[in-house]
Write a structure and sequence with these properties.
Length: 151
């Protein structure tokens, strides 16, 4: 299935489901929907970041959180987070801790975002269809990267 064909729950400003639409329609019409982001840390406290593949329709070639994705219709945030960890980084289910909720707004592209944290020392194997490269960074290195690449 093409990722544009994914069916997502359309939600209101309170994050209540009010309908369903394809990913393409959700983005084209700026409808509120849901996404999950995962921050993968190793036990040294370094954060794994990914550079999105150039073939991605959203933010190609930009640095991003460790893994992320849209919550599909009928799916919950935790299931989505675990699915994305497996699809993008080949990490099986991990203990995830929710660390942040960001309500839908223009700067989140109308996504209600839940951010999860995961700590692991397992080897990460990136899915090159999704990610062009990935690496662990110290928090200092992350600040430098963000300053050099504000997008």
């Amino acid at each position: 299935m093409n990722e544009y064909d994914e069916i997502l729950d359309v939600v209101d400003s309170e994050n209540n489901v009010v309908g369903k639409a394809s990913r393409l329609q959700v983005h084209k019409n700026e409808l509120m929907h849901r996404s999950a982001h995962i921050l993968v840390f190793n036990t040294s406290g370094d954060l794994f970041v990914q550079k999105r593949a150039m073939v991605k329709d959203e933010s190609p070639g930009l640095w991003d959180s460790s893994a992320a994705g849209h919550v599909e219709s009928g799916e919950n945030y935790i299931s989505c987070a675990n699915r994305e960890l497996k699809e993008e980084l080949e990490l099986s289910e991990h203990l995830l801790e929710e660390v942040l909720y960001i309500p839908a707004q223009r700067k989140t592209f109308w996504e209600h975002v839940r951010v999860f944290k995961c700590i692991t020392n397992r080897n990460i194997c990136i899915n090159t269809n999704e990610i062009s490269e990935g690496k662990y960074l110290t928090l200092f290195e992350l600040r430098v990267l963000m300053k050099l690449n504000p997008d």
